[in-house]
Design goal:
Helices cover 47% and strands 19% of the residues. It has 472 residues and is an alpha+beta fold. It has three domains: 167 residues; 79 residues, Orthogonal Bundle (Helix Hairpins), CATH 1.10.287; 144 residues, Histidine kinase-like ATPase, C-terminal domain (Heat Shock Protein 90, 2-Layer Sandwich), CATH 3.30.565.10. The strands form three sheets. Strands 1, 2, 3, 4, 5, 6 and 7 form a seven-stranded antiparallel sheet that branches. Strands 9-11-12-14-13 form a five-stranded mixed sheet. β1 and β2 form a beta hairpin. The relative contact order is 0.07.
Length: 472
Amino acid sequence: MRRPFSSVRARAALAATLVVAVALVAAGATVLLSLRGNLTDRAGGDADSTARRVATSLATGTAPDALDLDDEDPVQVVDDDGRVVATSEDLEKISGTGVSGVEPVAARPDDGDDHGGDGGGDDDRRNGSVSDHTDYTDGSATIDGDSADFRFAAVEVEDTAYGDLTVHAGGSLEAERSAVNTALTSMLIGFPVLLVVVGGVTYLVTRRALRPVEGIRAEMATITASQDLGRRVPEPDTHDEVARLAGTTNETLAALESSVERQRRFVADASHELRSPIASLRTQLEVGAAHPELLDVDGAVEDTVRLQELAADLLLLARLDAGEKPGGAGVDLAALVREELSQRTGDRVPVAVEVTAVPQVSGSRGQLARVLGNLVDNAQRHARAGVRVAVREAGGRVVLSVADDGHGVPEGERERIFERFVRLDDARTRDGGGAGLGLAIARDVAERHGGSLTVRSAPEGGALFELALPAR
């Protein structure tokens, strides 16, 4: 049973929808806050304008009960004692100004020393000053039975004929409330629709983009079921990550096919190489069992030794294929060459040694000795009069060279001879030429020591094998 959102398409669509949802919520909140702030500031500006108009009238000597106050916006004038001295028409209720009274009382003229008279004539009027500062508060008011929210502006008028007065004027917040509600309703309707569209489009686009991946998966499943490594996955002509994935997959399949084919050849060749000495040894033992006087002990020993050497070569190749590390011990290649060549007996042609002092190399002494032995054995099979072994330092590397004066290796065969179980025709005509594993083992060991093994023509006319290893 598939779990919800188990496919890349579904997860991509869900992720895109969530990202867009978060972005829309953040953008919507920003828009609503900005819209509300702007409209609130506009209501405050209207209230401030009304308050200052009334305050200017009071400052120029207009009596509170003579003010021209319309009934659209609430206005409340309060004196120093907190008494309401003037209100707009039809104002029934008010909150948010600090004074809840809506019934004005008669304003009392200020009896200061700077003016005289009976306190009621035009001669007693004096000009006041309007404060530059405005205080804002939010509240509500009921005018002629209709209640609404308002932004109140409070402006002080100082030194009037009636003392210090404070004018409270309201600007309606109805437009702000209506606009915010309309915008919020539109968002609540539009956002889900937009999210559905984004999720659907993302799902379809992702599905189309991942269609080649599904083709790759299906082909890989077919290859796995059929075990046909010759098949390849389709490579889309898009030059994107999916195309590169298909290309890398085909390269991996090609490498795997080559490895499996090489393993099959290895098993077949190993079986063939083992069959001959085993059959020969069996024949000799059967003849010896029937006719003891005819038993070829030397031949049986020779076949047994050949089997032992072949088994050792196969075991070493298996260890190299398994990635066995050569180790990091220091090896004096010059001393190794002297020691190993001094122990060789029965060589068909003499071996000349040219060794100079060289730095040590890192690796396995046993494996490097095996390389030297394989190269000298190969040279012995092809040499006519002699073999030359030299050790020198060149370009920060220690170079071991083995040269013979035989017929050499044709240029077209110089890479093929390092393949496993490969023997050139003339190698088969001398003494069996071995199993064709010596040079393959030598190159594998060289590469695992961070070096290289190459072949070219020798000055003597034969083949020159050079093993180059990094100095320790």
